[in-house]
UniProtKB/TrEMBL annotation:
Protein name listed in UniProt: Carbamoyltransferase
Family: Belongs to the NodU/CmcH family.
PANTHER family (UniProt xref): NODULATION PROTEIN U
Organism (species): Triparma retinervis
InterPro entries: Carbam_trans_C, Carbam_trans_C_sf, Carbtransf_dom, NodU/CmcH_Carbamoyltrnsfr
All residue ranges annotated as the Carbamoyltransferase C-terminal domain in the record: 380-559
Residue ranges annotated for the Carbamoyltransferase domain, each copy included: 260-316
One GO molecular-function entry: catalytic activity
Amino acid sequence: GSLSLCTEEWLRSQVPPSSPPPDPLTSLLPPVTCYQNNHHFPIPTIDTPSLYDPSAPDTPSVVWGSALGYTLPPSASSTCLSSPLNIPSPSATTIGHHLAHAYSGVGLACLGGPGLKSGIVSVMDGMGDTLEMGLPERSGWEGGFKAALQDDGRGLLLTPGGDSVMPPLPPHLTFRESESFYAFTYSPSSPLSISLLPVLKRYSSTASPLTPSHGFEGYNSLGAGYSRVSSHVFGHWNECGKLDTNAMVVSTLSSVLLSASSLYGPGCSSGLVLTGGVALNSVANGLLKTMEGRPFGDVCVPPFAGDEGVAFGAAIKCAIDVHGGTERGRKIEEAIGNFEPYTGTEYGEEEVRDAISGFSGFVNVKEFAGMEDELVAFAAERIAGGEVIAWYQGKAEVGPRALGHRSILGDPRDGKLVDFINKKIKVRENFRPFAPSVLKEYISEWFEWDDDDDQDVSPYMSLTLQARQSKVASIPAVIHVDGSSRIQSVDGSKPGTRLYHKLISKFMDLTGVPMVLNTSFNTIKSEPIVEKPRGAMVSFLMRAPELRWLILGDYVIERRPVVVSPEDTFVVKGGFSLSTRERFWGGVGDVGSVEEATVRMQGLEEWGDISVHPEVGGDVLALCDGTRTVEEVAEELGGDVAEVVEVVASLEKNMLLKKIVV
């Protein structure tokens, strides 16, 4: 990009004294170096796509961009940072994928809340870097440490010492990282004195063509196992949650982690850090955390165990190499010590107001600025009264879990909410469970966790605990079939969770229950958690018509009740196109189909597709032009007025029609 990182003083020194001073871009120093990882393709200097496609224009591009057909503008420099002010380009260092994962977990475990001094970090995911990319320094095998590759019949094991044995491979195959284990130590006496010592790495063979889509078929990593089975059973690699075999996989995973980690004796007795996509398995994490005798000491999982954590790990490794042992390194340690998972963009009051005003005809709004107690009380009363609310506060969470800033909240005492939220709000399978956000001071009272020194046991909703038998019947909406819950422990002393803790505390005052049901604020399958205020309004109004309340910062927003009479006149809120398709439903051995029509609002692509009645929905939209009443629309269609009133009400609830008020 064109953003330069430099001090304001340096910027001022680059312009003549007579010129107006430039706006400071940031308070950071000029870039010294760049640490990076892309485990599908290297990130090299700029090349030309003609190396891969002779017909492509001779435009600068990177290798993985060439494979996708993307190109960079001719002005692009040979590094990821370029400058219109001629700042010298920083050097770039590529580190291994699993090494970046490892540093992301260890950096937070040592410098953040857990404060570990030593232990084992496990990295397990779908696939990491190739063998060619990963040796030696990029995978942590450095400092003269000798590594040997051994063929174990299922792949290659990289272990200390010995002689390497490389089995022959066909040209179209390569080896990629499957699982990695590192021992780590941290000495607080010197800033950023974190070291990783590799103890085991396994590589699996896989096809590796010049394409970003490396399928999991035939790949022998633990993480890929989920996806392979899912692909064969359900036709999609990312439907792992449906698998009845999940319990078996979890049990096997826990055994693998226990066996592998225990191989290294006292090294892991003080702490076990889990990273990589497999570390998102909260059941396995909970089994390891609560294992009898606590053989691993503390078990830590960062909020970004997946690939979003690779950037954090690269930054930690960079900080250690560049600022280790320095005063700046100490400041970096202090910053990480105050880490909270709310790292998204801070949206201002103006953006919130603009988002609300864009839907003024559909909502009632009340402002609670400077009235935090009243705002929290209002939300808690709605939840305790059996309603479900959308809750949007501050910066968004990093990682896949909603942790009280972008959440849909409900009453954990009401078991019927599971079916209601899954069907009416989240639009997903009805077996999907929900998690509780629990005041950390009540964890051991409600769940089987007896460590009074570690009540903030799961701040990132990364593990499950068994509910105490005496409490199961009180919170059916957040209990899995085996009596466990994937909990988030909420600490009221931290800035990012202070307001959320206050809300749950008020709910407890009303109900005696120190938790709320918490699920991510996204209201359509495969949609990410909402980010911007406008996205929250869209998700609330158009995609979740059964939601009545959204609390957006200091504003309580109520969906206006939909009341349609035959005399009302409506107009389409925007242009639209209509298509009809056959939608298949059902599971294995139970397949059927139903015709449905889909509306896409023109110019509002972010809203996506809305299903409507295939016979009358599209016709009603076409006739609601602001000149006809609902009754006249029904007459033109030759349909029943009551039926058309019902269709219009549904279309208005989904934000497709807007009533004209004279």
